[in-house]
Amino acid sequence: MSTSTLAPGLQRFRHIVIEGPIGVGKSSLARKLAARLGAELQLEQPDENPFLARFYADMPGYAFQTQLFFLFQRMKQVQAAAQPGIFVSAVVGDFLFAKDALFARLTLSDDEFRLYAQMYAQIAPQVREPDLVVWLQASPETLLQRIRRRAISMELGLTSEYLQRLCDAYVEYFHAYEGAPVFAIGTEHFNPVDRAADFETLLERLALFKGPREFFNSHVEIPFG
Which CATH superfamily is domain 3-216 in? Predict the structure, then answer.
């Protein structure tokens, strides 16, 4: 299917976010989709977080600093992209601003989270939701394999237990999420990053997507509230 054929179906989505747990392929798919659509690419910038490597080595000790850095970094990114007078045809990103609170609840102590939540509550109303969220899914075992394959040293200590908690947190989050339409994709056997045919299938499904929710090739089936 050509880009021109897809355009009428995809023009509805001016801001598309690719989401999912670490190792699932968010950034790679965002790059590929942005290139196809001629969209601006908005990626997380974990290398700029001075606490991240220490967080992976000592999560309780560095979770709060890590989360605060990401909170303000992501706020600046999404606000910059939404500035009036700056025209872009579309934006494709690899993070949902609200996911910051998801990670905070997962990694912070109760006292830390209460303090974090106060700051988050001041910022969140200033952030617009995207037009579409593409939620990528994979099992913890598959995620662990992909993390080891890409061999980023600070990620190699992640465990399947942590990844299971993260996957469960995403399921819980999207169970109640109403901010934007959600297209959920299982990536165990469907690979739109490395297989051209799968990427074209994804484009076709997104062009036809009516929302508000759809599961495709997913091993996770949850009701939406």
Answer: P-loop containing nucleotide triphosphate hydrolases (3.40.50.300)
